[in-house]
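User:
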Amino acid sequence: MAGTTLKPTRARKPGCFALQLPALIAFAALLGLWQLLDWRQVYPAFILPGPRLVWQRFLSVVADGTLWANTQVTLIEIFGGLALGLSVAVVLGYLLAKSPALEQVVLPYLVASQALPIVALAPLLVIWLGAGHLSKIVVCALTLFFPVLVNTIVGIRSVEKGLHDLMRSLNASPWQVFTLLELPAALPVLLSGLKIGLTLSVIGAVVGEFVAADRGLGFMVNLARGLFDTPLLFVALATLMAIALIFYGLMTALERALLRWQKD
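Assistant: Predicted structure:
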């Protein structure tokens, strides 16, 4: 019609369910294959228990409180490691980003330390720090330390020099430069490293509990292995996977919200 203009329509973004649909389909297919193997009795139950048997074992450890008690211990170690590893990595990463001379001295040793498997370090940390929470917290901190450190350095150095010059022209203090310029600019990159490091810290907690523990999900895995309780082993592993997925999902949501806030 003459005199009318067509306004461009904004493309609809797929919803959260649509984005997760392929993963849900893959999970359903895997579950169906697992159930089919159980029906056909391809493997004995002590090697590959069926979904029904694992579900029954899950209900039993939920009912007697065993699952939550051990999950709580592992979560304490993960969050303790998160607090320790994140604080040290961010502070050290900031110092290295601001001082190339310090980076040349320290960073090569930090990179070389990544060649040491955490499985080999965990027994030494237990000897030094004891078999309590502290050794597991340090193991968790070490697993997430390096990704957060590297991303902190990259994030701080991603700030344009012109913005630094602008802050100096406004007589901004070093604290104002950090809180108003450097930290907001580095947060997206920092969160990407934390997203990886936080999921790795779950592995750190389990490795520490493998070495010496009488509680925790790693202890449950060890116990189930020793008793040939394969359904309990599946329950412990599924719980660890659920924790890692929840952490990853929360960090992804936080990252998206931050990017949306920065654009606005």
